[in-house]
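Rotation project, supervised by the postdoc (A.L.). Task for the rotation student: set up a whole-complex structure prediction and record inputs and outputs verbatim in this book. Inputs entered:
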Amino acid sequence: AQTVTQSQPEMSVQEAETVTLSCTYDTSESDYYLFWYKQPPSRQMILVIRQEAYKQQNATENRFSVNFQKAAKSFSLKISDSQLGDAAMYFCAYRSATFTGANSKLTFGKGITLSVRP
Amino acid sequence: EAGVVQSPRYKIIEKKQPVAFWCNPISGHNTLYWYLQNLGQGPELLIRYENEEAVDDSQLPKDRFSAERLKGVDSTLKIQPAELGDSAVYLCASSLTPDTYEQYFGPGTRLTVT
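Outputs recorded:
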């Protein structure tokens, strides 16, 4: 079974600064997807960024980028130029590339609460 | 395009009472998911539907939980009877197909059992 670990329960960043959120995972599969989701107080989970395991290039979406280290099974999220609206819970998630049965589900970490100081 | 709709947003009930949650996925999305999110935790899958068929319900506590997705569109998740430990957020998500990597989430229902 796959597991996702987010060991930092909380982090804080100054507005306009850069922050990195850590995530590690464990799997025996070679092909999978990794995601970062944002959950603001409204509770609606929003996809921030995804990474396909077969791609060596790190994914980037505007101010958000990842550092994907497949051998180390590490997947961190970097938020540049932090904004007040970035304050939320952030979840790292794993999904097998085999979309059958239990493999199609997302496995989430416990999440990290990010606060942004004005 | 309307997102995933869930109701109610909040529900407070006494233990042993029944409760039901409703989800309307994004139009055209064939796959629907119900997740349970305990306080301070990430969501965990309860059940997944492809059209009206439940294809993965291994994590659903079937002694008290039931779900249905009639006509392959809306879905209802029911708990009967509710226990104190059922207090949590119940999230619904949908995706275009089972192969689609992106799942779109609703705002969830926060259940408090007293």
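Student's summary: Chain B has no helices and eleven strands.
Supervisor addendum: The mean pLDDT of chain B is 93.
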